[in-house]
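USER:
Before I trust my own judgement here, I would like a peer's view. Write it directly below this note and I will take it from there.

ASSISTANT:
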Amino acid sequence: MIRTLAALTVLTGLLAACSGQQMYDSAASWRQQECDRITDAAERSRCLETANLEYERYRREREKAGEVR
């Protein structure tokens, strides 16, 4: 019983991590479209740079920002 519960806990954690990345990746085109609406070229470029972050880099930067708070 304890092994089953432990296995389910680990599996749930893994699925949650995958879901977070999948959600982030699926929102990439929306983020890019929002950046395309910006008329200022420099600001649009900065926006696209942020919008196109790979998930792992995004996650690391998010964790780093959380440590600063």
Observations:
- The radius of gyration is 17 Å.
